[in-house]
Amino acid sequence: MKTATWLLLCASLLSAQEAPAEFEPLPRSRFPELPGTCVLLLVGHPNPVTMLDGRSGAEDAYCVTSDRSSYRWTWVAEPGAGMTQFRVPGGKDATVLLKGFGAARVQTLQGLGVTGDAVLVEAEVNGGRGAAEGAESLALTRLKVLDGTPEYPIKVSEAVAALRKKHDDRFRSCAAEIDQLLEAGRRASVRDEKATGPRSTQSLTYLTWDTKEGRLEVRFQTRISDGRFFIGGGTATVDGRTSTSRSGYEWAVDLEMKATVDRSGKPSAPVWGSLVPSRRFLPPFPSAPGPR
Question: Is the pTM above the cut of 0.70?
Fold first, then answer.
């Protein structure tokens, strides 16, 4: 199928959806200065978001975010932990050295009364010194859970789960259109050749707390992809097997949703973008030099 024909088919399928919403890019390495005490969102399973900046940590790690920032690595009180240095406002070399703080993880947070994948907290940052602009990590030297309190009745994890269900239901309802777009992508990429797969679905959830408006911001991105791949750049197809060194042609369809939830727990109406198709070629990795 020629590219022009593929684009026309994609356009006809997309026209059946409502006009795409405006979705600003997710933050990349955005770490604004924080005051000594502030409201922050503690978020678990952060790697899909931190990897947007090329960073990753433990699977059960927690980060903090507010006002559409990138996710910051977070330290909390941990008996027996050593000294850790954190950047604070006050100049390029301004730091504070804190003892007895370790990486925020499921076990350490449970001891502080924090449970759930996302929790709103009021926190003292770096002993009240705050966090410097650009600092990727900080310590919560004091924290208080706000979820379910009279001032913040919202229960963040429950609110996110309810919105996630709406997003997933919407994605499933688009199955026929997605299949057509994937088939169009296959024909445009490899013509009459078959897909080797595996067809995969990847999802990303980005959360942040808008301190000015006092509301949770939620973004979901889901991508379903397929392709005709080769192992190690050779001629043997993957045939459904996962390979860390695969190359070849990939085609995909993306759907994105955004919504907000106010501090009382009331969600806004979800806003969806259109189904967005894409194609790309994955070049083979250079071969390692042989013996001389």
Answer: yes
